[in-house]
Amino acid sequence: MKAIGLDVGSKTIGVAISDAFGWTAQGLTTIYWNENEMESADEELRKIIEENEVSLVVIGLPKNMNGSIGERGEASERYANYVKEKYQLPVVLWDERLTTMAAERVLLEADISRKKRKKVIDKMAATMILQGYLDSKGGVI
Q1: Is the four-CA dihedral 46, 41, 77, 17 of positive or negative sign?
Q2: What are the structural domains, with CATH classification, of the chain?
Q3: Taking Cα atoms as reference points, which of 100, 36, 52 lies closest to residue 44?
Q4: Is 63 helix (H, G, I), strand (E, B) or coil?
């Protein structure tokens, strides 16, 4: 049983996958999609879900610093509902405040060029979202 972590943006979806024990998250890929056509990521996402025998989807929920849900959070909630219906899998929304900024900081400290950072930032943010969820569960998915 594996979990998949998604960092959903308007143009890209960062994807991370857990190990079979639910202890660690690894960045997998970035899916390019059109947010206005939710099905535009279906082919790639379905393939990942099937190949990895995913049993749980964790989607980052970008909350405002005061805890309220803004426009991006509402978009993530819509996508979470879509994924739950489409793939018939349990979906968890996970507070992702500051994960993209944390991922950016890690990449900056590693002296990764701006061009390379842009290619991996979503995948790294998805990894941080999923790892945060896994840590909260103590390795039990």
Answers
A1: positive
A2: 2-137 (3.30.420.140)
A3: 52
A4: strand
Q: What is the pLDDT of residues 96-140, one digit of tens each?
A: 876 666 666 776 676 666 666 566 778 888 998 999 899 888 766
In terms of C-beta density within 10 A (0-12 exposed, 13-18 middle, 19 or more buried), how is residue 113 classed? exposed
pLDDT in tens, 15-52: 999 999 999 999 999 999 999 999 999 999 999 999 99
Q: What is the DSSP letter of 111?
A: T
Q: Which H or E run includes 2?
A: strand 2-8
3-state helix, strand, coil in the chain (%, to 5): 45, 25, 25
Handedness of CA 57, 63, 65, 71 (dihedral sign): positive
User: By three-state DSSP, how is residue 68 classified?
Assistant: coil
Amino acid at 91: V
Q: Which amino acid is at 121?
A: I
**Tokens 């379905």 correspond to what residue?**
46
Q: Give residue 48's identity as a one-letter amino acid code.
A: I
DSSP string for residues in 22-43: SS-EEEEEEEE--TTSGGGGHH
